[in-house]
Predict the structure of Dihydrolipoyl dehydrogenase.
Amino acid sequence: GDYAIDLDTIVVGSGPGGYVAAVHAAELGQKVAVVERYDALGGVCLNVGCIPSKAMIQVSHEYLTAKDGADRGIETGDVKLDFDKVQEYRKQVVNRMSNGVAYLFKKNKIDVIHGTAFMKSDHSLRVINDDSAQTYTFKNLILATGSHPIEIPGFKFGGRVIDSTGLLALPALPKELVVIGGGYIGSELAAAYANFGSHVTILEGTDTILGAYEKDMVKIIEKRFKAKDIDIITGAMAKEAKDNGDSVEVSYELNGEVKTVTADYVAVAVGRKPNTDDLGLNIAGVETTDRGLVKVDAQGRTNVEHIYAIGDIVAGAALAHKASYEGKVAAEAIAGQSSVVDYRAMPAVCYVDPEIATTGLSADQAKSEGLDVKTAKFPFSANGRAVSMHSDEGFVRLVFTKDNEQVVGAQIIGNNASDMISELTLAIESGNTVEDIALTIHPHPTLSEAVMDAADVALGYPTNI
Ligand code: FAD
């Protein structure tokens, strides 16, 4: 018979939002189960997002390094790429990380329920899989169902029209690749394939790729992309894809003229949509916005008091670390703690070449918030480690208040910017001033010294420029 199974807290979705929320809720004493519709745990991030993309990007850089080391004394024969092996490597990395989530669930005695969840009431849901259906009741529910790629008219996914998932898993290295959308996902993978040797065309609807980032950083990326022979076509409105079986013809409108480009694949990376349509949220009385985002308060609580939502299905940056952060806050709220989210020091990284990493506010954002700010910039061309790594392009920029010199934002573009941004995120989180950073001893020679040097610039006593 179909009797309901009772649980304290159910988490729907095992992505970086859901799995972190589940682990933390279990750590705080809840009996937790996670519902996941796919066999593999870890959501988009681990399986078809952050992790596999970084594996591909890493290999693409190693390939370039192997090819162009001659001027530093590394002589190789003909460097060849075995794309099947690249794909095998990607899968190995993903499997390892996904198994890691299974281990964490086991360690924290979290049950995994495989199947697709659908709300039955505000205290129960039904999980359906291939051969069974079961009802579960809960005291608390955390929705972490994530998002999926948006499809655009004229580009129905299938065959040679692919999304980011398809782009990560291509069966062979394409000679010609078209990427629609020059946001961070499109740009990262466009660069990786260009590094592997594909000729890539980016069609971007607005007047710039990476529009979320400041012009001086985008310029550096554009220059690199051009050096990789990537065609960046901005102001291009994608119209239609014609799949001819062994190639695809992509038409787009540019300045009122229709043009075409033929490629092996066209990848559409124009944004993502929250997975909230098929959950039956209305049955539970959970409110969403017209964009399908779940409305939540600062603890992640929806309008239904014991139902929470986190990650890509709520407002804000669709990023893995944001999902995990919200997951921890929701778990603590369920445990009766007074935790709330604070997005002031939210980092974001774009893994192009060189990397872009930002945290807190840009100068413009700070000004529009009414803050009186100054900026200080230090270039990697004056940093010994960067020069020795033949990666001297880029800079560190600090945004700080004029009156008390408190750090409110930072932008880094350069090799390993992704790892350097955390120092500045901590600085913002801790309310540090530029002097705090300048007085912090940084090891030499490191890229991170550029952060200290930027603080010296801010104080008006630059040593190294
Ligand atoms: P998801 O990771 O989407 O997980 C949701 C899970 O819920 C899925 O496993 C899904 O199967 C399951 N689910 C959905 N509906 C149901 C249901 N009804 N029943 C049962 N299970 C269900 N972010 C970064 O921070 N850094 C990066 O470098 C980065 N790179 C990316 C690269 C790519 C190519 C892509 C596509 C994304 C990238 N992201 C990156 C974004 C990141 O992947 C997402 O922000 C993150 O995965 C969101 O986490 P989440 O937990 O909200 O949802």
Q: What stands out?
A: The two ends are 76 Å apart (CA to CA). The mean pLDDT is 97.
